[in-house]
Amino acid sequence: MIQAQARNKLNQDDLQFIVTALRRQGEKDSTILHLLADDEMRDAMLDHPRLFEYLLEFRQTTSISPFLYFYILARHALREFKIDDRAVADYVATLLAEFGHGTRMNRIDRHSTKEYRYLVDLMAELFDANSEQTFYVQSHLGNYALFLTGVFPDQVYHRAKYHPPAPDFSYYEQVGSANFQRASQHRIAEKYRLADILYLLGQQFRQVRLALNHLVDSYLHLDRHAGATDRVMRRLDNFREKRELDLE
After folding, report:
1. Tens of pLDDT along 76-108?
2. For position 223, what pLDDT does the model report?
3. Distance between CA atoms of residues 67 and 70, nearest Å
4. Distant-in-sequence, close-in-space partners of 215: CB < 8 Å, separation ≥ 6
5. Is residue 106 part of a domain?
């Protein structure tokens, strides 16, 4: 299960990175570290434009945790798409950090050994699932659909165009949105304070997906296997969709 915990997983290297980025001339490290101990001040500092700029200029990103790295990028990208919710950015950052590791995106939880490569196989699990299992499968369906379409959009576009009946973005959006919303109503979502996060992800799945596409296109430069023409056409589709969202 993915939880919104990226900000709570910052390590000493992360804190030093923040200090170095935001420290003014003559200011002691201890001053900023003291401020970072306060959650509200930490959140404000994580939103500071100078931290984002420093991250883009920094060459050795492997020295910081993926939780800090993806939180800064996800928060920035989501705000560009009018989603100004730190908890959602926290959840998305944790999703990116965990699903980017090995085959985690194909497993319902990090301890599971069974892998699912297609949404239809995951959905089949719902037929025999008990209440608790249903929540985990539904939340993973949402997570899987969001990660795949958000981080690897050109692959989705390419498959849908050249290998029908491979699912297109609308299919993943419908499955992801519906399952996030169903999972948000479960008692486990309330227990782990995920109800509001999952509900928003369900309601605004497309906006979040487009924000992740922007993050990948602008900062990560992944997914280079699809043809260049496909990438241009997919980005044009994204532009049109964003314009439609702005007009709503």
Report:
1. 999 999 999 999 999 999 999 998 877 888 899
2. 43
3. 5
4. 73, 74, 76, 77, 150
5. no
Rounded alpha-carbon distances, angstroms, from residue 148 to 32, 48, 50, 54, 86: 37, 29, 30, 28, 22
Helix (H/G/I), strand (E/B), else coil: 9: helix
Q: Which amino acid is at 29?
A: D
**Selection from 96, 51, 98, 57 nearest residue 74 by Cα:** 96
Query: Looking at the structure, do residues 76 and 131 belong to the same domain, yes or no?
Result: no
Sign of CA dihedral 206, 209, 214, 217: negative
Domain of 214 in residue numbering reads as 112-248
pTM, to two decimals: 0.88
Sort residue 193 into left (φ over 0), alpha (ψ -120 to 50) or beta: left
